[in-house]
Amino acid sequence: MNATAPTRTTELQSRRVQLASEPAAVPEARGQVQAAIRSWEVPVDPDAAALLTSELVTNAIRHEAGETIVVVISCSRGQLRVDVHDTSRSLPAMANAPADAETGRGLLLVATLSAEWGFYRTPAGKAVYFTLAFPPGPAPAAGGRGPQGSARGDGEP
After folding, report:
1. Nearest to 19 by CA among 69, 54, 64
2. Fewer CB near the last or first residue (10 Å), C or N of the chain?
């Protein structure tokens, strides 16, 4: 009997979704990320991806000056990446929120649960992203998008 290991995504897969900058965008973005994970058979925790997406989209809506945000979901090089674009020029910063605060710990959660997170300026404003790494296994082929900055925001696409 021959058993083969499941194949891993080696090519860039990408989905771009434009959403109204309103609270309904949060569950829509979560659903889009989870659908991409299922469709592409990405070996990451879909609940973690949905939670981190919720945090970034909520922040974008809270600080968004424009009418829309854009969520870009991509998968290649052994990771899932979610970028949330908005038109705000204000860069994200982790807050020192007290333990009993109802808000202010979203970026700490993103930093804790993601393999990498960061932000970069765009012509229209900025994008904030996180990545989730695939579990160890056969290495995917090289290619696709690489990191676009760090949590210090020192890179651009």
Report:
1. 69
2. N
Residue 125 has pLDDT above 90, yes or no: yes
The confidence score (pLDDT) of residue 156 equals: 41
The pLDDT assigned to 116 comes to 96
- In the block, residue with structure tokens 């600080």: 63
Instruction: Say if CB 123 and CB 35 are below 8 A apart.
Output: no
Q: Classify domain 13-133 at the CATH topology level.
A: Heat Shock Protein 90 (3.30.565)
- For 150, half-sphere exposure in the C-beta direction (CA atoms, 13 angstrom radius) is 2
Q: Cβ of 39: how many Cβ atoms within 10 Å? A: 11
Q: How far apart are CA 30 and CA 49, in angstroms?
A: 8
How many C-beta atoms surround the C-beta of residue 62 within 10 A?
A: 13
Q: How far apart are CA 33 and CA 41, in angstroms?
A: 12
Instruction: Kindly give the interhelix angle for 25-40 and 46-63, rounded to the nearest 10 degrees.
Output: 150
Cα–Cα distance for residue pair 56/71, rounded to 1 Å = 10
